[in-house]
Here is the input.
Amino acid sequence: MDLVQAIRSRKSVRQFTDQKVPKEIVYEILEHAKWAPSGGNLQPWTVHVVSGEELRKLVSSVQNNLLEMKDETPEYNVYPPDLKDPYRTRRRVVGQALYELIGVPRKDTAGKLRQLAKNFEFFGAPVGLFFVMDRQMEIGQYADLGMFMQNIMLLARSNGLHTCPQEAWARWPETVSRFLNLQEHEMMFCGMALGYMDESAKINELQSERASLEDFVNWRGFE
Ligand SMILES: Cc1cc2nc3c(=O)[nH]c(=O)nc-3n(C[C@H](O)[C@H](O)[C@H](O)COP(=O)(O)O)c2cc1C
Here is the structure.
């Protein structure tokens, strides 16, 4: 698979098969992904890779939280509270497309929550990754982490795997930090599901849109 194919075939997959992913494949993906650039070569990330019984344990503690309607203060706001347009509309459009696809009506809050809860089962993926940063880090280092994560997502594609990056996990900072034995200065920024796409799942038919270049590129100095 060439680079363009990897980029264009990556999408957020929200239903995986239970086919296992061997540790050697994840190891190799990380071995290549670590060559992402980072300002000052800080390589400001640590990664926790969870699978098997350990993953089941984590999933069950979060499902318990949901059942007992426990709440934790989210680690951070995933979106600004007063998200402006065009960002607000883009978010609404992709959300509506997703719920329409899986037959959840607009006002069905419970149905939407059920879909949201699937985040906390890694959408059935056999591997979950957690990306952890030192709380000391600044905006620049979060860009570094993004590049590292994108490397992982593209390398996943070249191994026949799919991913879903998951900020939703920031909703459970105490549960996740306890499970990963994180120290005070460490912050779990984002999760990621990794596995084989369930080709038969309706939800995986979702094709998100992108703005055209005219909307976000300013050219200068070209003939
Ligand atoms: C950092 C990051 C966090 C995300 N968190 C979630 C998440 O928690 N749950 C989810 O279903 N999708 C999540 N997504 C997926 C986005 O919704 C998705 O990337 C966007 O709609 C574009 O669709 P595509 O990835 O299929 O191209 C996340 C994406 C990124 C980059």
In short: The mean pLDDT is 96. The two ends are 34 Å apart (CA to CA). The longest strand covers residues 186-195.
